[in-house]
Design a protein that fits this description.
Number of domains: 1
Number of strands: 0
Shape: globular
Radius of gyration: 16 Å
Largest sheet: none
Distance between the termini: 21 Å
Number of helices: 11
Amino acid sequence: MNLLAHLYLADMTGTSMAGQILGDRIKGRLDGRFAPDVERGIRLHRAIDGFTDRHAVTSDLRRRFAPPLRRYGGILVDIGFDYCLARGWARYSDTALPRFADYAALCVARGWPPDESMPAHRFAGLAQVLAGYRRPDGLQRALDSVDRRLQRPSPLPGALPALLDEYQVMAEAFTTFFPELCEYANQHVRRQ
């Protein structure tokens, strides 16, 4: 899952939204250097990613992308699922997506550990990124952002047409997958 789904699941489970964002940045063991709620959010992020990566639905979707995109299929499915969530937002939340996006950005900024660097403009732009997932230009922004973080050039900047071509199949898969992921996230938090 990508940013929007992670933050939705953090809100649903009452866990740290900052921890969800940090889940992609912090590697290795959690040794108490963060507040307990942030570490709990990081653990949930990792559990969500593991569940998603192992699920048969996402495995099937990754294989739908032809080489060279297939190598990046996990990233494409994650971003595509945020598109599905954003486009079907009213099914999952009573709060309008732009309002949730503003709230999530505020929660991330408030919960961000002071010793972790994050440029102020990233907090300011987070709400726009989250709300943008419902449009193709928002997907392009996400693809470009991931590409910039990779260590070598990738085909992700040109992947938007392939991602949009798979939207119907992804949307059908998402309606099965996402409720299972929500239940898994709730169970994971209850076990912690």
